[in-house]
Amino acid sequence: MKDRPFIVGGLVVFLVFVTTPVWRSLRTPKATLVAPEIKLPMQERECVAPVGYMRASHMQLLDEWRESVVRTGQRKYVAYNGKVYNKSLTETCLSACHGSRQEFCDRCHNYSGVSQLNCWNCHSDAPQVARKSP
Amino acid sequence: MSVLEKTLVGSRRYWLWVAALLLLVLAGLLCYLRQLTQGLVITGLSRDVSWGLYVAQFTFFVGIAASAVTVVLPYYLHDCKQFAPLTILGELLAISSVTMSLLFIFVDLGQPSRILNVLLYPQPQSVMFWDMIALGGYLLLNIVIATGALRAGHEHESPPGWIRTLSIISIPWAISIHTVTAFLYSGLPGRTYWLTAILAPRFLASAFSSGPALLILLCVVTRKITSFDVGREAIHKLAVIVTYATAINIFFVLTEVFTAFYSEIPEHETSFQYLFAGMGGDYHLVPWMWLSLLLSFMALILLLVPKWRTDMRLLVMACFCVFVSIWLEKGLGLIVGGFVPSPLGAIARYTPTLLEWGIVCGIWAIGALMITAFYKIAFSIWEQS
Amino acid sequence: MKMTRKRFLQLSGLSLIAAAAKNVVGGGAATSAITESTKATRWGMVIDLAKCRQKEGCNGCIKACHSAHNVPQFADRAHEVKWIWKQPFEDVFPFAQTQYSREINAGLPVLLMCNHCDDPPCTDVCPVNATWRTDEGVVTIDFHRCIGCRYCMAACPYGSRSFNWQDPRPAIPTVNPDFPTRTKGVVEKCNFCEERLAKRLAPLCVEACEEKALVFGDLEQPDSEIRKLLRSRFAVQRKPELGTGPSVYYLI
Fold it and tell me: Which of A58, B13, B282, C146 is most buried, taking the most CB atoms under 10 A from its CB?
């Protein structure tokens, strides 16, 4: 049993590592269950899709938009209410309605820990002010 | 599995070797992290020379992997009994080489996190697709064969019948991996240095000369540090293969030189001129290319004379010369020569940076670690029987 | 052309775009529009080199393209990114001149960009289909899918493609928010202003040229201005012997 120190030591190291989230969270301020406040658009009352769908699947919608604009050149989206929009994150989502990604997108993303977003590495998050929507 | 445990017992020298390799791997990893953060700007690559050491090393080690066929073919198809111990060593070398090649491709990518796209969106019109199939299949084949052979040896049984079947399949497969790698280059209309039918045969010839040379060197080294000896006959038969392959490779290079310089078509000549004489004030590759040629000829002379080829020290020197010569030709000259002069006639100087070498050495160290571990397992299984 | 489901949907989509576009593109300023019919199938360009060199040092087209498309400007030539640029005649057409006929074009600049080939070698080699030739003849790149292997750069016989060796954003003089930037690790090149072609607008370089040296249009329309020009004057392509079928022609 000359391995005992290694086994016990290894178990201790393992326990420390596996409980890291617990004692790390002791350092950070308590998160609440209150959902973050997002800034809703001023002018528009309707999104390109129903709010429930957007909450659940806006990523899929953006993915579809990306595929259809980039790979088939189809830039027009006919929404559920018959309105036609340009498929553009910067132009339609931000510029026409949601304005600032910090006060809208980031609020929920930061809260839920969605950190892998890399849309903004390329797409502009500072759209021109006062542009009319299509 | 206790076979793997054999890699955990070793002499002091063994552990020093492993520690040194692990340090190199760590250094390479740190360099690669730098590359991930800053981008490939940390390399010596440029808009005109957009492929360099990484892709060249990928090409070179695919060749080493393919050379397992030089021991498998004589053993299984021509009943060359002396190659019995060599086949497993060749297959284990192939596994390490293919792994190194795949790692070199990975570190060359600008967006490595998207590497799965090659599986998600396969493109059969791209030669890279077929290269992926060929290399992946060859890796799998050799893993299965080697595992089966080692397990049989460990259990003191004779190898199962399917090992022979799979090994025979690996013969044309080995030819295909290096042919398809050559096709990556030889179908591009804008790169005159590569646009030649003889590129695939050249790749195979240089692979069958540098691969067995490396195998001979590995066998000589292991004979010195372990009790394992593949036998003089096996080494000398392998040396004959290296001789033929080196002669054929030099012949192929000379035929290329003839076509380029007798036809005097400028586009055919320019890359050779850049590599062997310099162009536009850039001569930095010239000494290396001539060294490669000199080493090849020296090696050929040492190998052609039977009295010298059978002298172990001269054979080791010849194998070393062959390996370095082909490393310079394929692991450096081939890639840069394809890109210089550029399509618009620019001479862009490519010199790998320190970080680039760090990553390359890290991958070499991974390959060396794999070979060390694999050969240790193989030798300890032999020692038991 | 046989009416297939795909073709029907294309026509319906185009009609919808045309109807919607009429409301959007109202009083567009001095933007040049393409006046051919909507059945465009192969975009092409003719560059009149004599007109191009009327004004020495003129690079309005380059500035217009690079600024609108957020093309980074790197001081280090080795890592430069360029969609459109100029090089001396003897670099572009090295075998068009001999020592006796060299003087006439010696040193004079030629405008270069992606040739948007009919049979591009670059699209054949991409392992993930991140670059392809659209139905309208534009060789385009999906920056989301590109893995940065640079095989397309090796395959291009014209040196038209650039790679982002590092993050391009710090090197963009003024970011145009209406067009995305790219990220490090992907390949980029001239896109024939695909985003403008979708709105029936000519490419920026064509519009910016004060000498009207660039003529853009549909090579498949026999009555287009570009076809008339190609019928009336002898035009050359870069490296036609390679069989790539470039869509960019030069009037020497």
Answer: C146
The whole-number pLDDT of residue C104 equals 78
Looking at this predicted complex, what is its ipTM?
0.95
Flag whether A81 is in a domain. Answer: yes
CB of C183 within 8 Å of a chain A CB? The answer is yes
Distance from CA of C211 to the nearest CA of B (A): 26
Q: Which of B276, B156, B343, A82 is nearest to C91 (CA)?
A: B343
Spatial CB neighbours of B294, under 8 Å, sequence gap ≥ 6: none
Task: Identify the bridge partners of residue C216 per DSSP, sorted by sequence position.
Answer: C45
Give C147→chain A minimum CA distance, Å: 15
Structurally, chain A folds into a number of domains equal to: 1
Residues of B with a Cβ under 8 Å from any C Cβ are: 38-41, 45-48, 50-51, 105, 108-112, 114-115, 117-118, 120-123, 125-129, 132, 184-185, 188-191, 266, 338-339, 342-346, 348
Q: Which helix (H) or strand (E) is C156 found in, with range? A: none
Q: Which ranges of A73-117 does DSSP label H, i.e. alpha helix?
A: 105-112
- The pLDDT value given to residue A26: 83
In a domain, A116, yes or no: yes
Share of residues in chain C with pLDDT > 90 (%): 75
CA–CA dist A35, B255 (Å, integer): 74
Residues 6+ apart with CB under 8 A from C123: C131, C132, C133, C139, C152
pLDDT at C20: 65
Least confident of A130-134, B206-210, C93-97: A130-134
Give me the domains of chain B, ranges plus CATH numbers.
2-384 (1.20.1630.10)
**Mean pLDDT confidence for C140-162:** 98
The pLDDT score that the predictor gives to residue C39 is 61
Domain boundaries, chain C: 32-251
- CA atoms lying within 13 Å on the CB side of residue C91: 19
**Under an 8 A CB cutoff, do B111 and C146 touch?**
yes
Residue A130 has a pLDDT of 40
Question: Cα-flanking dihedrals φ and ψ of residue B290, to 5°?
Answer: -70, -35
Q: List Cβ<8 Å contacts ≥24 apart for B69-74.
A: B69/B170, B69/B171, B69/B174, B69/B175, B69/B208, B70/B208, B70/B211, B70/B212, B70/B238, B70/B241, B70/B245, B71/B212, B71/B215, B71/B238, B72/B167, B72/B170, B72/B171, B72/B174, B73/B171, B74/B237, B74/B241
Contacts of A134 in chain C (CB under 8 A): 20, 24
Average of per-residue pLDDT across B98-120: 97
Interface touch A134/C198, C-beta < 8 Å? no
Portion of chain C with pLDDT greater than 70, in percent: 91
Please determine, looking at this structure, whether the domain spanning C32-251 carries the CATH number 1.10.357.10: no
Residue A90 lies in a domain: yes
Tens of pLDDT along chain A (134 residues) come to: 789 999 999 999 999 999 998 888 888 777 677 777 777 777 778 889 998 999 899 999 999 999 999 999 999 999 998 999 999 988 888 888 888 888 888 888 888 888 777 889 999 887 664 444 44
Q: Would the CB atoms of B344 and C165 count as touching at under 8 Å?
A: no
- C-alpha distance from C169 to closest chain A C-alpha (Å): 9
pLDDT at C28 exceeding the cut of 50: no
Interface test with B, best of C83, C86, C144, C165 (most B CBs within 10 A): C165
Residue of B207, B220, B181, B1 lying closest to B89 (CA atoms):
B220
**Residue-wise pLDDT tens digits, C202-245:** 999 999 999 999 999 999 999 999 999 999 999 999 999 999 99
Give me the domain span that covers residue A117.
57-134
Six token digits for residue C146: 């590109």
In a domain, A134, yes or no: yes
Q: Residue B276: left (phi > 0), alpha (psi -120 to 50), or beta? A: alpha
